[in-house]
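Pipeline run #58 for the internal structure catalog. This entry was flagged by the ingest filter as a single-chain record with no existing model, so it goes straight to prediction. Upstream metadata was stripped on purpose; only the residue string is passed forward. Reviewer on rotation: M.T. Logging verbosity set to normal.
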Amino acid sequence: MIKRDIYDDKITAAFAFLPIVVLSGARQVGKTTIMNNFNYKKKKLFLNGQNPEVIEIFSKYSIIENYLKINLDINLDGFLLIDEFQFIPNISTVLKLLTDNNKMLKVIATGSSSLDIIQKVEESLAGRVRIINVYPLSFSEFIKFQNEELYFIYQKYNELTVDSIIDKEIKLLEFNYLTYGGLPRVALANNISDKIELLNDIYLTYLLRDVKSYIKNEDSVGFNKMLRILSSQISNLLNVNELSKTSGLNYKKTIEYLFLLEQMFIIKMVEPFHTNKRNTITKMKKVFFYDLGIRNIIYNSFNDILIRVDNGAIFENYVFMELVKNVSSTSNIFFYRTHDNAEIDFVIDNMIEKITIEAKFKSLDKPSTFKSLQEFNSREGVSKSYLINLDYNYQQNGIHYLPSCLLSKISAFQRS
């Protein structure tokens, strides 16, 4: 079993201060595997929140406490693992009582719907729980899933590593990642047909089982249209009025279902950065997909990334998700665009400094002029600026031209 060390580190850090950790994310991103493979140094007990017998055990505090004393530890000194905890009624109250009354007990729970999880936490777990979002594999993790020896080599690279040194197989893996995404089961599939079949299974099952349970029958056709439209508009400004008209859903329903898709970890909407509200576009947001494989199955295309017409949009989506997975949880990611078409793909604000990122699906061999980027950096006092491209590594005029496969190596993202 391949470990995802970043989540072990996050769980360990959370337990230093809090008794409960919730792993939140879409189905098939590996939440249960991460929970089961954590480095437990005490006894553990796994329970499935969708099991009716488990739900019955949690029906009374006295029942679950006695059950844990028998099946976990007489002093409740250990770890309780609950998969899909949001299916258990009144679970937040029970966990509050368990951890308040038994200081040695630690709880790890998983959940696939942010809507349900937020509700559970807000009920009574505030101040006792840390929610850790689990995403599809980062590109670094993807390399590890494909080839651990290559991953060992990749770990030695840094943001100054030049293209001629980078193993060519890493570049091939990156193109594979851009096409089929980072869901663990898909990453482990050996051939293309298996990857596509798995993506189709996950897409249909996930949407039918989870998302569509929130969709009214009369909206089903419009919702499907909306999803396909969103897949064609990744990395672009989203006009909600236009989306409403094209999908056939009314405006209120369109807003509601966009929110739903965000809470179910299918899409992410990014807000604009602005200091001058008159000059910047402040209403429309950009749309991205959490996983490019799911996006491409909805878009119905797995063509070679080098020849497809949407490769620039896919590349920007890839850069965005790498940023999400690597920046600190307290950082905000924006885009910047003015009415006179000055544009910057991403502005990261971590409350200490600003970092700008431009994504170009191009092979470069010399610096270029990016007036909007340089003017924004000067005006906003940006400390670090990167132009992410396919292979060029060079620094000039305050801009670091960085190969995309080294995104996770940016020094400002490195954790102490």
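catalog note: The longest helix spans residues 192-209.
catalog note: The chain has a mean pLDDT of 92.
status: ready for reviewer M.T.
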